[in-house]
Write a structure and sequence with these properties.
The chain is α/β, with parallel strands linked by helices. The chain is 45% helix and 15% strand.
Length: 282
């Protein structure tokens, strides 16, 4: 079984699977990042395979493949194909996705997730080679029982602290963290806020997660309060960004997936390079 805590390292990159250019993956590897998390991946894992083919050491984690968009048999077959060529370099992150897409009377997310995991078991995907998108206590516990651990998205260090308490010491805990390389708070909020508001402040599971952390209806209303945005989007110079990322580690995370939100004219690779240098990755 792969030791994901060692393989993923301390910091990785999180990028949207819909917009990521696989051609920059080798550059991220050269910058010293051990891992790349790709959001919204289809069950064929073709983009994942392209990235692994183009790199030599980089671990690719899906963050996530939604159980709403694929079948467990399809995903299991894709997984087997990829790991045969690249053993130890694919962490299969899966999750429910956005329950709003399915009427609640026809679909129960927790039950559906368990049934999907049953299908992965039948398809030969090892429990220790997958992780679950998890926000609330119930799915956090499930991630410890039926996977290598949890990949929480749009969370704070306080969520990380609570998640570690639920998971216990052994399972992987790898939260995503948005960052904006701007030292002016108002400018940083203007860049980071849209990535929080749409669609997440309109989705029940994210709102409930934030409410459990103590954010009020006023914090979640409209464009979100400045307090909420400042907590969810770390900003500042590279050293300040790294200090913000390390707050997750201090709270119990094993790994932090760094999600750069670029401003106008920004080159995300340059931003990742600045963060890598400040973090001592290269």
């Amino acid at each position: 079984m792969t030791d994901w805590k060692a393989s993923l390292g301390t910091f990785g990159v999180w990028e949207s699977g819909r917009t990521f250019d696989p051609a920059i993956a080798p550059e991220l590897e050269r910058l010293g990042y051990p891992a790349l998390w790709l959001g919204s991946q289809p069950g064929d894992l073709e983009v994942v395979e392209q990235i692994l083919d183009a790199t030599t050491r980089l671990v690719v984690a899906t963050g996530i493949v939604s159980i709403l968009t694929t079948q467990p048999r399809t995903l299991a077959e894709s997984y087997q194909r990829v790991v045969e060529a690249h053993p130890g370099r694919l962490l299969l992150g899966i999750g429910v996705g956005h329950p709003e897409r399915v009427p609640a009377t026809q679909w129960r997310p927790y039950t559906a997730l368990n049934e999907f995991l049953d299908g992965l078991d039948a398809g030969g995907v090892p429990v220790g080679e997958r992780a679950l998108a998890a926000l609330g206590p119930r799915v956090l516990r499930l991630s410890a029982e039926r996977s290598a651990g949890a990949h929480p998205y749009l969370v704070t260090p306080e969520h990380t602290r609570e998640a570690r308490g639920i998971l216990g010491a052994g399972p992987l805990l790898a939260p995503e963290q948005r960052v904006v390389l701007r030292t002016d708070p108002a400018e940083a909020r203007a860049i980071g806020r849209p990535s929080v508001v749409s669609p997440y402040l309109g989705l029940r599971n994210y709102r409930e997660s934030l409410q459990r952390l103590g954010y009020t209806d006023d914090d979640l209303a409209g464009e979100g309060s400045d307090r909420l945005i400042d907590d969810l989007v770390v900003s500042g110079d590279p050293a300040s960004i790294v200090a913000g990322l390390r707050r997750h580690l201090d709270a119990g995370a094993d790994h932090v997936a760094v999600h750069v939100i670029p401003g106008p004219g920004d080159d995300p690779v340059e931003s990742y390079a600045a963060i890598a240098q400040a973090a001592g990755l290269r």
